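ingest -> validate -> predict -> emit
validate: passed (alphabet ok, no gaps, 322 aa)
predict: started
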Amino acid sequence: MQPQAFYRVVADDFNAVDGIIRKQLTSHVPLVEKIGDYIVSAGGKRLRPLLVLLSGSALGYRNDQLRLLAAIIEFLHTSTLLHDDVVDASGLRRGRSTANSLWGNAPSVLVGDFLYARSFEMMVELASMPVMRIISQATRVIAEGEVLQLSKIRDASTTEETYMEVIRGKTAMLFEASSHSAAVLAGASAEQAEALRQFGDLLGIAFQLVDDLLDYRGDAETLGKNVGDDLAEGKPTLPLIYTMREGTPEQAALVRKAIQKGGIEDLSSILDAVEAAGALDYTARLARDHADRAIACLDVLPDNEYRDAMIELTRFAVARTH
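emit:
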């Protein structure tokens, strides 16, 4: 299955979700629409709403309710992107200037709030208390993950355990909420709902591990962001944590100093150190392990093209270069 094939099996639903997103972006305040349309039109992979559509479809549930849920998830994700770019002072996302670099921090935060609020209006329309419980809890955990990450900026003593807690919150939680809420909405059995919850969690962790790996093994043109961004912000991600723990004393000292200082003056030396210490291979192995465990969770689903697409999506998530 080609990378785009896992979109193809739900192509009509995907287009319908895009229509819902456009419709829900309307506001009588022009700047809200302008910024909202700018960030939504940037596209991206839209893996989270895709996960909603595939999870529900794999259970034989394909209707407007599922499409609405997919749009809700994308609105939540987009609101967090607007906020994250302000927090990280990012100037580039998906190869384009960020909203905060074009319009400033205040409008970006406020439009993020608008999208977040709109997602909850749409959730009320969905009228499913179990789904609302899953998504409202997820939004809290995501916020906690972001704050935990912020508290560890330039903290070279951050452990792998804490790092995993950060990525489980800030990234994996929305993947988990996507597959879990779709399962609940589709009336899945308790076993299926739990398996899809775990699937989303494991896939989200694998996805973020690869993201953090690519910060040291990618290029800006392919990634749509600057290589070394995490290091510049003083974020102690797994490749750095592993190098400090398992590398030579010289490699560990180099990385520790870079984290504490922030900036990318020593980027070339850091890239050499994380490669030589085996940190990138370790991160890639961990990502593959989580992906394999995610695929095993899908055994409880009916054998159909949507389940196959979820397997291929998981493999793509760890094999990707951007």
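Residues 190-217 form the longest helix (28 residues).
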